[in-house]
Write a structure and sequence with these properties.
Layout: E1 2-3, E2 5-8, E3 22-25, E4 37-38, H1 40-48, E5 65-66, E6 72-73, H2 77-84, E7 93-95, E8 98-103, E9 106-109, H3 114-119, H4 125-140, H5 159-166, H6 170-180, H7 193-208, E10 216-219, H8 225-236, E11 240-242, E12 249-252, E13 258-263, E14 266-270, E15 273-275, E16 284-297, E17 310-314, H9 316-319, E18 325-331, E19 342-349, H10 355-358, H11 360-363, E20 371-382, H12 386-389, E21 391-393, H13 404-418
Parallel strand pairs: 1-14, 2-3, 2-15, 3-11, 8-17, 15-21
Antiparallel strand pairs: 4-5, 6-10, 7-10, 8-9, 12-13, 13-14, 16-19, 16-20, 17-18, 18-19
Protein name: Guanosine nucleotide diphosphate dissociation inhibitor
Organism: Rehmannia glutinosa
Pfam family, one: GDI
Length: 437
């Protein structure tokens, strides 16, 4: 059999190439690869080496613990991908209750509009007025309408210069840049302001899609539902899925181009391979390390309005760090734990070899925990030239608790593989499958 496109476990599964035959191989016996969701017994085996979790935590099968916890921006690119591929018919989503930011030692709701800016305790009275004017400018800004630009070319004006025009202080820009625009560091300040304005508008548009308190949505039963849904849809178009395939050795011809993949003595011939970095370690380079804590709790995160699902971003400056820290919490309301149980994650780009110490600022916000697990993993990015070897490698998952950076990577892969830019101009308002229950 000839497989022009051989796909291993990947962040998003391409089902648009219906003219190609797709074989998806996975060395694991479960869907999702790195981003799977585990039940309690699987979680215990992975971190404690035992298959007997304590009885007081409840039934194992009621847990769906994400290994790469991320929320989905309600008006973002991933929702458009889900609608474009029609995979939404296999999924159910629910809005996330809250979006918060850590500032000056406290957790605050992220203000996303001019009216919320006036009410936010993050700023003093005069700063609130300046912030309100800035939010109005962002809300009214239209790239195609120069009348909304107020004489500024945001492709040339830096974010720092835009901030100076409105007189916002560093504290205000800290939460705007990291919790609203979702920048991961402060390099954006000296880059064109258009990107930051677009990011802020996406946040506000996503927030407006639901009556809840955040711009995020999350699938019922956890993120492990995403790869399973794509596998179902792939099968409709003739794709084949093989779990529990050991080794998966990529084979190359005399010109250095991929020619197939071998597992258990059998080789599937292929002209292209798409995979995560673990399948081709000689063609990637290390770019960082993620530190993460996973906690099982019997209460919501304090100071988040008793939210059953919530994201808290801890900007780097607030912690004296080089990178942000992220806090993600979900619960039985999304069917990922038994009633009364909450699952929280704290993650960041590791700057030391001591995750327990490094993650302490985020862990301290959780309150009492029933159980806690720590892990670190290396992050990689491709170092090969796909035009030479036909190997298309995804970038490792970063510590962010939203999918924005991951989707960019996947869409770039799509363009590299097909030579086309995926058209995601869809009517989100018609996507009832992504609406809150």
């Amino acid at each position: 059999m000839i497989f022009p496109l051989l796909v291993f476990d990947m962040k998003v599964y391409n089902t648009s190439l219906v003219s190609c035959t797709v074989l998806h191989m996975d060395r694991n016996d479960y869907y999702g690869g790195e981003s799977t969701s585990l039940n309690l017994i699987q979680l215990w085996k992975r971190f404690r080496g035992s298959d007997k979790p304590p009885a007081h935590l409840g039934s194992s099968r009621e847990y769906n613990v994400d290994m790469i916890p991320k929320y989905i921006m309600a008006n973002g690119a991933l929702v458009r991908v889900l609608i474009h591929t029609n995979v939404t018919k296999y999924l159910s989503f629910k809005a996330v209750d809250g979006s918060f930011v850590y500032n000056r030692g406290k957790v605050h709701k992220v203000p996303a509009t001019d009216m919320e800016a006036l009410k936010s305790p993050l700023m003093g009275i005069f700063e609130k007025r300046r912030a309100r004017k800035f939010f109005i400018y962002v809300q009214d800004y239209k790239e195609s309408d120069p009348k909304t630009h107020e004489g500024m070319d945001l492709t040339r004006v830096t974010t720092r210069q835009l901030i100076a025009k409105y007189g916002l202080d560093d504290n205000t820009m800290d939460f705007i840049g990291h919790a609203l625009a979702l920048h991961r560091d402060d390099r954006y300040l000296d880059e064109p302001a258009l990107d930051t304005v677009k990011r802020m508008k996406l946040y506000a548009e996503s927030l407006a899609r639901f009556a809840g308190g955040s711009p995020y949505i999350y699938p019922l039963y956890g993120l492990g539902e995403l790869p399973q849904a794509f596998a179902r849809l792939s099968a409709v178009y003739g794709g084949t899925y093989m779990l529990n395939k050991p080794e998966c050795k990529v084979e190359f011809d005399e010109e250095g181009k991929v020619c197939g993949v071998t597992s258990e003595g059998e080789t599937a011939k292929s002209k292209k391979v798409v995979c995560d970095p673990s399948y081709l370690p000689d063609k990637v380079r290390k770019v960082g390390k993620v530190a993460r804590a996973i906690a099982i709790m019997s209460h919501p995160i304090p100071n988040t309005n008793d939210s059953h699902s919530v994201q808290v971003i801890l900007p780097q400056k607030q912690l004296g760090r080089k990178s942000d820290m992220y806090l993600f919490c979900c619960s039985y309301s999304h069917n990922v734990a038994p009633k009364g149980k909450f699952i929280a994650f704290v993650s960041t780009e590791a700057e030391t070899n001591h995750p327990e110490t490094e993650l302490k600022p985020g862990i301290d916000l959780l309150g009492p925990v029933d159980e806690i697990f720590f892990e670190t993993y290396d992050r990689y990015e491709p170092a090969n030239d796909p035009s030479l070897d036909n190997c298309f490698i995804s970038t490792s998952y970063d510590p962010t608790t939203h999918f924005e950076s991951t989707v960019v990577d996947v869409l770039n892969l799509y363009t590299l593989i097909t030579g086309k830019v995926l058209d995601l101009n869809v009517d989100l308002n018609a996507a009832s499958a992504a609406e809150e229950e």
